[in-house]
Amino acid sequence: MLHIVSDSSTLYSPEEARRAGFHCVPLSVCINGSTFRDYEQITPKEMADCCRRQAAVSSSQPAVGEKADLYARLLTDPGDEILDITIADGLSGTFATACMARDLTKDPARITVFNSRALGGPQRLMVETAVRLRDEGKTVSEILPVLSAMAQTDVSMVAVPDLGFLARGGRIPKGMAAAGSLLKLLPVVIRRRDGKALDTLGVSRTWKGVFQKARAAFEQEGGLDASSILYILHGDCPGTAEKARDWFRTQYPDIEIVVLDLCPMFMVHGGPGCLALETVKKL
Q: Which of 110, 145, 180 corresponds to the end of one domain?
């Protein structure tokens, strides 16, 4: 059997993942020195509340040993294989962790670690696609080209109203964060095509301006069509997400739009009120 593995960047809890046909290893957040696993020990709402109380927060990927143990449990029969679809290498250490865990197993040749070059919605769709193709009888060698082609269509960006979270994560200088917060700016950062880092797309004073910048970025990459999914991921700000959904529905009436809560780990870096806008094509 081919087992699909990923993490809570897909915005699935372990139980939801089990029902969907794959294994989800939760990422973790550290709050005031205590560690909590996404969805299992802390909800997105609880994480947002902790951030609003200015708790000291950080994030971490699954331990190598946890991944290695999962791989060992899944490779019980000679015909078992594993395809682990991770967050973009460079934005997270989960890809490196998965590779190290693979090399610790007795039969690493039966484990394929795929760098999605994405996170959030596009990674979620890649996992769902891999599960569907697996269930249709496709092999790893047949699934990988589809995932690679999907990764080429991913355009992801995020707007962060509280620049302090970006500063604490080392994304921008603290002085810039202080000035930006004073001016009430909304910076928009976009994931590089190789998935290894984020670049500043621009700043706006309004959410409509953010949406317009996102649309321009989408159009520069070829635009959206009926094969596209637009993911609107929010950090406990459903009202802002609803505004984004309504605005983009007028721009792209034929595309599928999916609105989801960001997992706790993402709020470490974006904070409450952040909004991710991501698009990827269904293949």
A: 145
